[in-house]
Amino acid sequence: MGTTEKAGRAASRAPLSSSLSPSRAADFMRCPLLYRFRVIDKLPEKPSAAATRGTVVHAVLERLFDSPATDRTAPRARAMVPGEWERLLAAKPELAELFATEDGGQDPERLAGWLREAEQLVERWFTLEDPTRLEPAERELYVETALESGLTLRGYIDRVDIAPTGEVRVVDYKTGRAPAPQYRGDALFQMKFYALVLWRLRGVVPRRLQLVYLGSGDVLTYDPVAAELEAVERKLLALWAAIREATETGNWQPRQTKLCGWCDHQALCPEFGGTPPPYPLKVIPAQSDPPGQGRMGQV
Ligand code: SF4
């Protein structure tokens, strides 16, 4: 079977999602070609030490609430870090490569330093919030709602607190540093996305959105109003229209920024002299197209 034929068969099997998460929306806004590589081509990416540390820290902050309030102490949370790392490693053995040495062994000092950093992030949380006084209504909550347009919004919310008055607070932990004021809009976009989904699901606009930055020890809060969330919905619909347009035309533009330094796909990116792989979706000639000038189409 030739390469083209294989690509055609792959294309006919490739379902196109009609859902959007905050991270995929952020990918498209950051660089449409990056979105294509991740969502359409599904290219593998190397595990990152920072992202994996974030996963371990999130797991500790979530599971600590399994304990009675009086046991939710900093030393106990710190002590949970190695166990959560082992649990994650058992589920994803490929993460061992983060601490691999050239001769195929493991570097215990690098691992110990990385665990120490995770423990420090967990400890800093106790300077920002007091888990002995919190009883989250939800932790790691999966949310999903379909808009009238047919677009489904989905994602995971780290924590939802509900006050006795019924007011809802949406909390997200970040293991990095708080962004400079001029970049806070990007961080809040994710929170407004969650607020919109919760509002659509439960009929109540969350009272407060709270970002907890463990890297710098900052808490950023924002109180949304319905009109803003409606604006977020319009923005998401426009974003989705742009994604569909790119999917149909195969026109995924690269957008070079300083974040390219963290992109796993530089070797395939025209901005860095690379060539993307053949577009995996089928070409569907449009009736108005002159012969030989088909459009790349959704299947
Ligand atoms: S290297 Fe930069 S421009 Fe190229 S795909 Fe990655 S994020 Fe986009």
From TrEMBL:
Q: Tell me the Gene Ontology biological-process terms attached to this UniProt entry.
A: DNA repair
Source organism per entry reads Streptomyces buecherae
Gene Ontology MF annotations: helicase activity
Q: What is this protein called?
A: PD-(D/E)XK nuclease family protein
Specify where the region named Disordered lies, as residue ranges: 1-22
Q: Where is the composition biased (Low complexity)?
A: 9-22
UniProt entry tagged with the keyword Ribosomal protein: no
UniProt-listed Gene3D superfamilies: 3.90.320.10
Q: What Pfam families has UniProt attached to this entry? A: PDDEXK_1 (PF12705)
**Keyword ATP-binding in annotation:** yes
Residue ranges of domain PD-(D/E)XK endonuclease-like in the record: 19-270
